[in-house]
Design brief:
- The protein is an alpha+beta fold and 489 residues long.
- The chain is built from eleven helices and 24 strands.
- Strands 14, 17, 20, 21, 22, 23 and 24 form a seven-stranded mixed β-sheet that branches. Strands 1-2-9-7-4 form a five-stranded antiparallel β-sheet, with no helix packed on it.
- α1 (144-157) packs across α4 and α3 runs parallel beside α4.
- The two termini are 45 Å apart.
């Protein structure tokens, strides 16, 4: 998808690209440049967050930043212009950004069309009609109050000076009437991204006056409904840096001494949708086993001193990951997926091993591609890179796609075990509990041993009890006697 346009021989615009598979919007997390800064081709200008990950966006040409169209914390549709670049600075005075009219919203250019035959899909919302929306044309049936507020909000987003305070800022606007244009008086008409925006802002669509064609509620209608209650009269738009500093406060819908409400969006929303979909689609079965891992802990200590493992992090998770890979090799039927559309079980002849990682933006599950082909040092290096990248918030959407089996290590929080929910499209997930010194019968005597509890959840449509039990038992046997990594490999 092309993400830049030419407004003249001098000024070029960069649009929000589709940085994930079919995503229709992204939130601007941080700007790395400001108006007047010089940029070069390939320079990262901002960081955005989609429903899958945080991604840095490079600019595809040289020049000087003319205008940032949106402040930090703003959710922008794919295809909307986010930054304008002066590619021929010094050739004349740059025109000032056009201010929005006082009484009607600005009409933005259409986003470039998606490639033929491809319609973006937002998880949990179905097929979207378009990746961008147009603002109402002149003559739309917006009330003067709503139009004035929408113009002020748009001017503020664009970084322009807002028009003088409109009558709506000094006199309360009439309470919007419930939508009557929905067929049969039912659900208000609005596209999925607009419904998401209304939910984020705490706006009931039934109270929004529609201005779109055929009674469809637009993004501007939602902003207009939210602005009178949440926005004081606008005198002048803040500078981009000031707007950026105020963005986090706007993320909280309401706060008091007793509770705080935080909009569900980005990675957190994607996690919630995926987990609900998995829990109520795949019939989960979870089995448990408690195992003596004393010998595994001794092996970890020895590997830390091995020169062949120099430069990589060695920990119990490395041995557990290798044990699971060996167990899958011995029981390949467990590495599969359920194809509901074609009513088929898809056997995978490769293992993309997912590792659940807790990050400031929520739990994500990047995976190690073709983990089954890696040696122990290679697997250790891949695990280290995966965890570091995830904690830095730099995990790409591609790194989280295509997983087949996952490990979640709840033991790092001191938890003994759990009943993990499958990642959508995967067949199994192994939860690893805390490794603790406990009394254990060893060679006929009670001795202190390093013990942990494993839990394996699997999709009972394609993994029956016998197969799931074999996989879990094999992992436990390897951790009890790690020499089986050699004899069973």
């Amino acid at each position: 998808m092309t993400t830049m346009t030419e407004t003249s021989a001098r000024f070029r615009e960069f649009k929000m690209p589709d940085v994930g598979e079919g995503l229709t919007e992204a939130e601007i997390l941080k700007w790395f440049v400001q108006p007047g800064d010089t940029v070069t081709d390939g320079q990262v200008v901002c960081e955005v967050e989609t429903a899958k990950a945080a991604v840095e966006l490079p600019i595809p040409f040289d020049g000087v930043v003319h205008e940032l169209r949106f402040p930090e914390g703003t959710t922008v549709d794919v295809g909307q212009v986010i930054i304008a670049i002066d590619v021929a600075p010094g050739s004349g005075d740059a025109p000032a950004p056009a201010a929005a009219p006082a009484q009607e919203p600005v009409e933005e250019p259409e986003a470039e069309a998606e490639p033929k035959g491809r319609t973006p899909v937002l998880v949990g919302y179905g097929v979207a009609e378009s990746s961008t929306k147009r603002r109402p044309r002149k003559g739309a049936t917006a009330t003067p109050e709503a139009a004035a507020v929408a113009a002020a909000v748009q001017a503020e987003l664009n970084g322009h000076a807002a028009p003088a305070a409109a009558p709506a800022a000094t006199a309360p606007a009439p309470a919007p009437a419930p939508v009557a244009d929905a067929p049969g008086g039912g659900r208000p008409l609005a596209k999925p991204p607009v419904r998401k925006l209304a939910k984020d802002l705490g706006i009931d669509l039934a109270t929004v006056v529609p201005t779109g064609k055929d009674g469809v509620i637009t993004r501007e209608d939602v902003h207009a409904a939210a602005a009178p209650a949440a926005t004081p009269p606008v005198v002048a738009a803040p500078a981009p840096s000031q707007a950026a500093s105020e963005a986090p406060a706007a993320a909280v819908a309401s706060a008091s001494a007793r509770e705080t409400r935080i909009p569900v969006k980005g990675v957190r929303k994607a996690i919630a949708q995926a987990m609900v979909g998995s829990a109520f689609t795949a019939p989960h079965v979870t089995e448990f086993v408690t195992v003596d891992v004393t010998r595994t802990m001794k092996l970890v200590a020895e590997l830390k001193e091995d020169k062949d493992m120099a430069g990589v992090r060695v920990n119990p998770l490395l041995i557990i990951a290798k044990a699971l890979l060996v167990a899958i090799k011995r029981n390949p039927e467990v590495n599969a997926a359920w194809d509901e559309a074609n009513q088929e079980i898809v056997q995978k002849h490769y293992v993309n091993l997912g590792i659940a990682a807790a990050t400031p933006r929520g739990l994500i599950v990047p995976n190690i591609k073709d983990a089954h082909d890696k040696t122990l040092p290679q697997l250790a290096a891949a695990l280290g890179d995966l965890v570091t990248t995830a904690r830095d918030g730099k995990t790409s959407p591609a790194a989280m796609a295509g997983g087949t089996v996952t490990i979640t290590n709840v033991g790092v929080f001191g938890v003994d075990t759990g009943t993990p929910i499958l990642n959508p499209g995967e067949s199994a997930i192994l939860a690893v509990g805390a490794i603790k010194l406990q009394p254990w019968v060893h060679k006929g005597k009670v001795k202190p041993r390093q013990v942990t509890t494993l839990a394996l959840s699997f999709d009972h449509r394609l993994v029956d009890g016998e197969l799931g039990s074999k996989v879990l038992a094999d992992v436990a046997a390897i951790l009890e006697q790690p020499k089986r990594l050699i004899t069973w490999a």
